[in-house]
Amino acid sequence: MFARRLATLGLLSLVVGMSWGDSRETSASEMVVYFSADSGQSPRVLEYMKRELGQIMETAGYRVAWRETQGARPEQTAGPLIVARLEGICSLGAGEHVGPAAEQPASLAWTPVVDGHVLPFSTVNCGNLTRTLAPMLAGEPVARRDFLYGRAVARVLAHEFYHILLGVTEHAAEGVAKSCFSAMDLVTERFEFEQTTLARLGKHAGTGAEAGADEAAGR
Ligand SMILES: [Zn+2]
């Protein structure tokens, strides 16, 4: 068996301009996310992460149902099932200092690929994410930091979910499914799946998001 970290999300120094359309769906297919994290996480960051991830996946035709990994019972679900984990502490507290960002692009998250199959297990590297975000968040009030950090984690996880849901290792040219994020992508006001990816995910979800994406693209 050959395992590799092919579906790894790195970091770009480029900032890419993007456009968005409103493609909120009224119907959605449920996806179950079993979530775990190293102890010591900020509850506020996790709250913002869940809210943002729910919104991003909703545009793609999925409704996220969160489950705790610990003590979870096996359940039957017709939709996709993903295990997500935060490794390290995903927050930047007041007065907290971190080392300089690595000169090489840092891996923010990864999902294993075995024998060409993308497995439904995603891990976020909170240490690398913190080093990436620290320069942008350092001047922000703590409450705002938590919000921006939570949203960044959501964007990173949404990228990995894209790989898992479609079972693909390739990337889109833009949006959440592109191969590398810039630090600005992580903190900017709006950063979502672009229309082509939304259409693919919506088709996969079978909820008609494809039509919504087409409508939005045609505006
Ligand atoms: Zn990727």
Going by helix content, strand content and strand pairing, the class is alpha/beta
CATH top level class name: Alpha Beta
Q: How much is the average pLDDT?
A: 83
Instruction: Please tally the β strands and state the result.
Output: 8
Compressed to H and E, one letter per element, the order equals: EEHEEEEEHHEHHH
What is the total domain count?
Answer: 1
Strand content: 15-25%
Low-confidence segments, given as residue ranges, are 12-25, 209-219
Task: Describe the protein.
The protein has one domain: Collagenase (Catalytic Domain), CATH 3.40.390. The protein has 6 helices and 8 strands, in the order ββαβββββααβααα. With 219 residues, the protein is α/β, with parallel strands linked by helices. It has helices spanning 43-59, 126-137, 142-166, 183-187, 195-205, 209-217, and strands at 3-12, 29-37, 62-68, 81-87, 109-114, 117-118, 121-125, 180-182. Strands 1, 2, 3, 4, 5, 6, 7 and 8 form an 8-stranded mixed beta sheet that branches. Helix content is 36%, strand content 22%. Residues 12-25 and 209-219 have low confidence and may be disordered. Zinc ion (ZN) binds at residues 7, 9, 159, 163, 171, 179.
List the helices and strands and how they pair.
Blueprint: E1 3-12, E2 29-37, H1 43-59, E3 62-68, E4 81-87, E5 109-114, E6 117-118, E7 121-125, H2 126-137, H3 142-166, E8 180-182, H4 183-187, H5 195-205, H6 209-217
Parallel strand pairs: 1-8, 2-3, 2-4, 4-7
Antiparallel strand pairs: 1-5, 5-6, 5-7
The structure holds zinc ion (ZN).
